[in-house]
Amino acid sequence: MPGAIHAEGLVKTFGDVTALDGVDLDVPEGTVLGLLGPNGAGKTTAVRVLTTLLRPDSGTATVAGVDVLKHPNEVRRSIGLSGQFAAVDEYLTGRENLQMVGQLYQMRSGAAKARAGELLERFHLADAADRPARTYSGGMRRRLDLAAALVVSPPVMFMDEPTTGLDPRNRQALWDVIKELVSGGTTLLLTTQYLEEADHLAHDIAVVDHGKVIARGTSDQLKARTGGERVEVVVHERDAIAPARGILARYGPGGRGLDDVSVEDHTRKLTVPVTGGAKLLAEVIRDLDAVGIEIDDIGLRRPTLDDVFISLTGHAAERARDEENGTGRPPGKDRTNRKEPAA
Amino acid sequence: MTSLTDRAPRVPAARGGIAQSFADSLVVTKRNLIRMSRIPEMILFGLIQPVMFVILFTYVFGGSMQIGNSTDPDVYKNFLMAGIFAQTVTFATAGAGAGIADDMHKGLIDRFRSLPMSRGAVLTGRTMADLVQTAVTLLVLAVVALIIGWRPGYAAPTNAGKIMLGFALLLLLGYAFTWIGALIGLSVRTPEAATSGGLIWLFPVTFISNAFVDSSKLPGWLQPVAEWNPFSATVQACRKLFGDPGLSPSDAWPMTYPVWASLIYSILIVVVFRTLSVRKYRRADG
């Protein structure tokens, strides 16, 4: 049975830029899919297609069991959308914004008013409820935007980079809301360029690059693809690199092979994949100490999704962004250039 | 656990059809009226411009204009008002275009387009709000006109009903022109382009007409253009209804039956430009 969000073979081009190049997605009901990728990877385009804002050149999609292309208005009744740009009217107050959205969901004006009040309380906007939204801080606008997406309780939510540009406190608060939604049974598709965020919130992760899903799985599965744990050692002196390498090689998968140990000369850092966890770390320290090698730093590193991304794409998420723009400014951030493919 | 999902209302059944379209349009109209009330300088400039035109035309051109056989500035003043009223309502076009272009480039449009609302409501709501603003402007302008000496019934008898009908035709013309503005706003890339693009064509439309001069004194080849100009039809209709001097003596159909011509032109413009605009809005890929 297809999931609450299901897409097959989505293709979308803007001029000669291919934003989506055959994307397949499936999000089972009540789960969170994290769409992870750098800016320009096609994440936003995928969200825009699934939320009926954009027609794909080819491919099919259903949301909550309804065909997105054939019955867009039916789909709109089942979804909530919260984007990286606060989609609120800046001259309306927070309360007026939420009431308007409620009424456009066809709620009666009294019901819309009551719901607006509830959400303003819940999102700590009650004090600012009757001020125009343009006087809000970035975090407050984002909270208002999310509240607007939750005016009805949509079974399927789309959040496009919900925490981009938020400070840590606001980000944490938003994560709490997301967890609460999901525990209430909401299906969520979340795009992010923060690997930590996908790791933290998503049941499944699809890694997107250049309009294609290049890997998918749980966070653990993806990490396993890049190998397990590694011991990382930084020696104090350059001369100690060679003997340290010999010692570390004993712990590597080959037992003796020096090739298992990667060396970064200029930082005097040695890395070896290991199995055995923290106990092993103590042995490594003892062995190095026994031959008098002084170390600046040692640690057991588990692979992060950053490592996953680099091993899958050959470049880091951040670097990909800079390469694509030249300026390092993410495309799609500028609302006056909306015709360009957004990230 | 919380109000986020447990107590949240479910989406009510869609009402569908014209009832929903109308209700959604009213919600968006209200939104735009609130916005306008919070940017009062926009309303102020919208008022200053036509008042300025009335005063400039009356006192600068008034003494040099010949209407029919008369060079009396008083005749010109009474002749001019219908033209200025009509010009004022058509200038609402630029505001509508800029407003819609601005909306289309803001995140809010994604919210609207992802809601189960009527597709035409964003545009209809905007044009209806503009209509309210135009009505306010027109009211102020009419008061100014009366103060400086406009006298309905100056050349022919009139009554309250006819005067109301004249203003109704003016508002309908203004409403029709905001749909042209809507299409311009949807077709350009920036609100600035919509403002200038929305204004430029209004100058030939309002000047190649009977609004400010006696159209029978235009060069021969320009006369039919002026006489068949939809804008001229409304001006002529207003002069007729208000009992103002200087009716075009032309026997072109829109000049002979100006009330009907004005009505038909305006409705035609609404139908054509609303259809084109809503289609363009639906297809906008943002």
Automatic annotation (TrEMBL), chain B:
Its main location: membrane. It is found in: Cell membrane. It is a multi-pass membrane protein. The keyword Aminoacyl-tRNA synthetase does not apply. Residues 41-284 form the ABC transmembrane type-2 domain. Keywords: Antibiotic resistance, Cell membrane, Membrane, Transmembrane, Transmembrane helix, Transport. The keyword Ligase does not apply. The chain crosses the membrane at residues 39-59, 79-101, 131-151, 163-186, 193-213, 257-276. Belongs to the ABC-2 integral membrane protein family. This is Transport permease protein. It comes from Streptomyces hydrogenans.
